[in-house]
Each structure stands twice: as C-alpha cells, then as structure tokens.
Amino acid sequence: MPPPDHSISGIERVWNGGRVVPVLTIADPSAAIPVARALGRGGIRVLEITLRTPAAADALRAITDSVPEAIVGAGTVVDPRQAARAAEAGARFIVSPGFSADVAGACADASLPYLPGVATATEIMAALALGFDRLKLFPAAQVGGIAAVRALSAPFPEVRFCPTGGVDGRSSLEYLALPQVFAVGGSWMVPPDAVAAGDWQRIEALARSATGGPETAFA
Ligand code: 3PG
After folding, report:
1. What pLDDT shows up at residue 218?
2. Residue in 187, 190, 206 to alter for ligand 1 test, most ligand atoms within 8 A of Cβ
3. Whose CA is nearest to atom 8 of ligand 1?
C-alpha cells in the first residue's frame, strides 16, 4: 500500500498548480454548482468548502458530482470526525484553521492531503514535527500580512505558506509574489451579495482578476 498522501507536497500535487483557493461558505445549496462553474470560467479549479453551514456536505458532493473538473476540499475542519465525513462526501483535501494532530491522523487514514493552519512559531514547530511544511497562515492579514510571512519564514526557511484571512484582490497578488508563498486563500472573489443575486458574471470576473489572466479552467 502506498504511504498516505497527507504531506504538503501532497496538497500541492492535488491542487495541481492552483494558487488561488476560494474559501466558500455556502448557505444555499442551489448556489454551489453555479458558483463553482463561474469560478472555473474565471480560471479557478481548486475550491475549499467550509464546514460552517448545514449545506456544506451537500454542496461539496454536488460540485464533485456535477463539476468534475473542480478540485473540491473541505475547510474549517476542526475535529477528526469532520475529516472522515468530508472524505465520505468526496473531499479531495482537508484544511483547518489551526493545527490538529488528530485531524492530521484522520486525513492520513483517509489518504487525503491536509493543509493545517498556523499563526505562531510554536504552531509551525508542531506542524513541522509531524512532517507538514506547507501551512495555511491564518488569519493572515490580522497576524501581520506580508511582514508576518517574512518574519515567520526567517527561522523556518523550508516552510511555504498559504496566507488566508483578510486577503483581497490586491493583497493576494502581493502575497503570491513572495517566494515563501505557494498559494493564497480567501472569500473575496465570492461576495455574498453576488451569490444572493445570482451574479455569476461578477464572480467569474473576480476569479479572473485573482488569477491574473484570461485563462479558463473549464467552461
Ligand atoms: C477561512 O476560513 O479561511 C477564512 O474565513 C477566510 O477568510 P476571509 O473570509 O477573510 O477571506
């Protein structure tokens, strides 16, 4: 049996070059598929569905079934049972706001890559001790933004970050220009009012400007 694909190189392998990851909190399951398609037309294939709403698991499954080009994972996973349930719903990766050895174990059991969250040097040391060197910096803006990435990279040059939290269209490009950053995450390209209004074109346009180009991931 191959070793579990839970390392950070595992997350990069599954994201397959995706460097902008929308963090979606879906209240209305009927919005899931059109949002995923709009993001895809804007060049974004990797999606994180937060487990913060009752609709999350259904949304994850609906996108997985109906938008097969999308690479859908579960976010806000804070205990191992959620990780197991997300795996059953078809999640391809797991993201946590913090670092949990128990969630890491559940991801290994499910052969899913895990992106743990960190905000301090102590948390980075705990993650590195279990072999994780690709980490979500959360909440990125609130813990210091670009300056925090640079300061935390000094003692941990092997770590690459996915800053998430308070990121917007402008700061995302600044983060992505840093060699210590492998991706950025956030909800800015999926404004709740655009979802409520069914304004999929606006979401497509925000996704396109987030990825910095005209490329379409899928139609
Ligand atoms: C997350 O869980 O990653 C955050 O809620 C995303 O933060 P944002 O809404 O500030 O982008």
Report:
1. 61
2. 187
3. 165
